[in-house]
Recover the amino acids of this structure.
């Protein structure tokens, strides 16, 4: 009996060691990641709060401006297909949100709604762009509609793509990576234990057709998650409460809006799109029966065509967009801490481009 227990313990120890080797994934040096994923047109800008942000700013400087915001644990690369189709006619700005991609951890470890919202506004301030269309996917959609609420004078148009934040609409199925991040027992381990297969399965569960998930796509998500500070940020974000969207707040918005949604999204189901459509004026809703949670990455050609058509229909494709409403926060101090940033001195408020 003792001999049996001895061998059982040895086998268990071997299994634990093997599991650790299989899933152990240390941080990757930023210089190594930048060499692979941060080549031109990438650049790094510093915001007033000291945050260094990885951005790409492409297209004619006098063209209408578009800001693209990625979702949780993604990066600015999620928009590659859209940017390729837009940059000839539009100034397209995208960035890695704090705690993501090559931006790395938030400089003050602040993962509040206000910090994410104001990062987007400060990026555009830094580039001298006062007026722009903002589009966001998933968590990026949550950031986008919070920007529209806080800075309505700056946001010429709002685009929500499988956006989070609508009240009372629950997921029908959560990808395994999100489930692990929500587990109090597992969260500390995720800082060093991140098997590539978990990233692969999470991506496959986020799309309608798993065959669209390529090895290169998995590597991109897996490696950028291992930028120093990003996994800690993934855990820390769960400690900052998110206030759901409020119909009374949305009632003050007047800018045109576009809602793009994958019908096969199980993380943020179609009921969320219905809620947003009821609240937003001048909305256009496009539902893709065969797409999931990241439709702009699953089918960039079809989704960007619908986006371009909406820009043309609303007149947001023109070189200048008139301001449609005043900003109640305008003139407040301390940008980046819940107040509206000051107007960029070099750019008229009516100009969508830099």
């Amino acid at each position: 009996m003792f001999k049996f227990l001895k061998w059982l313990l040895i086998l268990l120890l071997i299994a634990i060691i093997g599991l650790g080797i299989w899933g152990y994934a240390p941080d990757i040096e930023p210089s190594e990641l930048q060499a692979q994923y941060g080549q031109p047109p990438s650049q790094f800008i510093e915001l007033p709060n000291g945050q260094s942000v990885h951005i790409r700013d492409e297209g004619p400087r006098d063209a209408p401006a578009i800001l693209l915001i990625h979702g949780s644990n993604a990066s600015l690369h999620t928009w590659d297909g859209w940017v390729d189709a837009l940059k000839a006619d539009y100034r397209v700005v995208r960035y890695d949100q704090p705690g993501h991609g090559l931006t790395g951890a938030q400089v003050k470890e602040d993962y509040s709604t206000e910090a994410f919202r104001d990062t987007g506004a400060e990026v555009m301030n830094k580039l001298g762009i006062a007026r722009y269309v903002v589009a966001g996917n998933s968590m990026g959609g949550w950031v986008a509609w919070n920007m529209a609420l806080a800075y309505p004078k700056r946001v010429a148009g709002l685009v929500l793509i499988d956006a989070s934040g609508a009240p009372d609409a629950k997921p029908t199925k959560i990808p395994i990576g999100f489930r692990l991040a929500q587990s109090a027992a597992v969260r500390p381990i995720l800082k060093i234990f991140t098997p590539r297969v978990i990233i692969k399965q999470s991506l496959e569960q986020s799309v309608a057709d798993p065959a669209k998930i390529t090895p290169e796509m998995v590597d991109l998500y897996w490696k950028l998650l291992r930028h120093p500070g990003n996994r800690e940020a993934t855990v820390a974000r769960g400690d900052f409460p998110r206030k759901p969207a409020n119909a009374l707040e949305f009632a003050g918005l007047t800018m045109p809006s576009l809602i793009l949604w994958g019908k096969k999204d199980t993380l943020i189901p179609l009921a969320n799109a219905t809620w947003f459509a009821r609240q937003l004026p001048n909305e256009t809703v496009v539902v893709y029966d065969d797409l999931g949670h990241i439709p702009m990455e699953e089918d960039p050609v079809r989704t960007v065509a619908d986006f371009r058509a909406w820009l043309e229909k609303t007149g947001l494709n023109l070189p200048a967009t008139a301001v449609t409403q005043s900003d109640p926060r305008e003139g407040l101090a301390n940008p980046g801490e819940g107040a509206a940033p000051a107007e960029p001195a070099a750019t008229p408020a009516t100009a969508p481009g830099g």
In short: The chain is about 40% helix and 15% strand. The two ends are 78 Å apart (CA to CA).
